[in-house]
Fold:
Amino acid sequence: MTNKPIISVIIPTKGRASLLLWNLKELRKQSLRPDLFEVVVVSDGDDLSDHTRKELDQRLYPYNLSVYIKDQKGPASARNFGVEKSVGEIVLFVGDDCIPDKNLLWRHFYARYRLEYKLCAVQGYTLWHPEIPPDDFMNFLVDESGIQANWRSLKTGDGKWKDQATSWFMTTNCSVDRQTFESEGGFSEDFPNAAWEDVELGFRFASHGLITLFSPDAINYHFHRITLDSYIQRQIMEGESRLVFCSLHPEIAGSLLDPNGLRKTNSEMFQETIRLAKETH
Structure:
């Protein structure tokens, strides 16, 4: 048995206690030995109910579980805080609404050490949870358009998965060595919401030559139904975060923003676009 876990699983959470508890219970079934990983939960400004606190009792879990509540500053700040409180040489970021495959942690461990890339990131594969079968709209977002998560770009022309996913760092399921994470200063806390903060860190990693391995067998299941209305709200938030990204990296802002289009846009045009989208949908 080791005295120190190798992998620290960082889970920011807010307002999804039932999913968080389901996530933690599934982590009890991991094929990786429980002494080789720890789980650090950071509640982002959300006080926990007595029932939730009872269910987070360390004695219920074979792995080391730490739970913290901090002032609300967004998921980027919560993840950074979680890393500060963790001890593993690898930090793995997952969502509180993602249910892990039993081999998730082993695959992150294996992907790193089989190729001896100790200073690297590993991008796992996130699928819709089978209990939420995707409808046509969700299939369009992921499989047809790639707007939500462009997994198709990680396949070769003959349909095989690529070995690398450089510049990817989707925090539903990704890991990186602590040394690299800390050397980059972690997630930028300029992002108040869960949008673009992981893309921005992945961009910095790629800019500095970090290799990101892709492990399609490291699977996390996203238990999150997306409707057109919820997607519209997310895209408004994404637009706000895109401006933050461009302020941090003005050298690529031209490929992400259309200043003339923004100047011509008004509230009436925006509402009409939403109306047409709903009518088409």
Q: What stands out?
A: The mean pLDDT is 90. The longest helix spans residues 228-248. The chain is about 40% helix and 20% strand. The beta strands are 7-13, 37-44, 64-70, 90-94, 98-100, 121-128, 173-177, 212-222.
